[in-house]
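Our platform keeps sequence and structure together, in a single record for each protein. This encoding replaces a full spatial description with a residue-level series of whole-number codes. We quote a single record here, exactly as it is kept in our systems:
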Amino acid sequence: MERYESLVIGLGAMGAATVYQLAKAGVKVAGIDRHHPPHTFGSSHGDTRITRLSVGEGAQYVPIVRNSHRIWRELEALSGESLFEQSGLLVLTSREDFDPSDETDFTLRTIGLAQTYGIEHEVLDATQIRQRFPQFAQVVDSAIGYYEPGGGFVRPERCIEVQLRLAEQQGATLYKGETVTHISSDEHGVTVTTDQRTLQADKLVV
């Protein structure tokens, strides 16, 4: 029975990144996926996903995203693949009842985080939005926009493929097309059974 320091179940965006970083750190790691990633059976398929440094969902994400942008460039250098397109990104609020003192407004939260963390950005009024982004010519006069030149999009399926390939080059083992049927743990670690084999590990990431 093969034993690893770490096992990772699921090799989508999070799993692929985890396997790669563990392998890069010298951990004896294996990843398991019931399909053959990248694939269309999870939440990581499709051509693009937006990314920006000022994440209006919460300040806790800012250092994570900053690090991810560094990692995308590192992966591009190692693989020769284009993963992160720094096209710039626009966030805007356009509604008649917009209240510039509303702390729950997503655009205002995004602006506030950019100011707090020193993220390069521009705040645009309705006229500037219409001039620079004519596809949004119908915004209301009270509209407000946040433009981040460092934002853009990543290519998720390509990111997964690159990280899994580099993980294998770093010594990771990938079990693709295997379904996990049972997981158990005891004082010795974790046992994972698939429809093809049984594996043991000190730690498990799901």
Notes: The chain has two domains: 1-44+160-205, 48-154. The radius of gyration is 21 Å. Helices lie at 13-24, 62-79, 106-117, 126-132, 156-169. The first helix runs from residue 13 to 24.
